Amino acid sequence: MDLLSILSIAMIFAALAVFGLRNYKLSVLTYGVQASILVLIFFTLASAHDIAELKSWAFVAILTKVLFVPYVLLRLLKKVQVESEVEPVAGFFVSPIIALGFSLAIAMSIYPIYLKFSLVQEHIPLIAAITVFMMGIFGFILRKSAIKQILAFCTFENGIHLTLALTAYNSPGIVEIGILTDAIFAVVIMSILAARFYKYFGSLDVSKASELKG
Amino acid sequence: MESLIILVLAVPFISSLVIWFIGVNTKTVNIIHIAASIVYALVALNLICSVTGGERYFAFNEFLFVDSLGGVFLSLIAVTGLLINIYSVKYMEWEVKKGHLTDKDLRIFFALSHLFIFTMTLSVLANNMAVMWAAVEATTLSSVFMVAISKGKRSTESGWKYIVICSVGLAFALYATILLYGAGFAVIGDGHDAMLWTSLMDNAKLIDADALKLIFVFALIGFGTKAGLAPTHTWLPDVHSEGPSPASAMLSAVLLKCAMLAIVRYYAIVGNSIVGFEFVQNMMIVISLVTIFIAAMFIIRQHDIKRMFAYHSVEHIGIIAFGFGIGGPLGIFAGLFHSLTHSITKALAFCVSGNIIKIYGTRDMTKMGGLIKIAPVTAILFGIAICSLVGIPLFAIFVSEFLAIKAGIVGGDYFAVALFIIGLAIIFVGVFSHFNEVMFGEAKSEVNKEKIELSANIPLMILAAMIVVLGIFSIDSVVMLFDNATKIVLGS
Question: N or C: which end of chain B has fewer CB within 10 A?
Answer without folding.
Answer: C
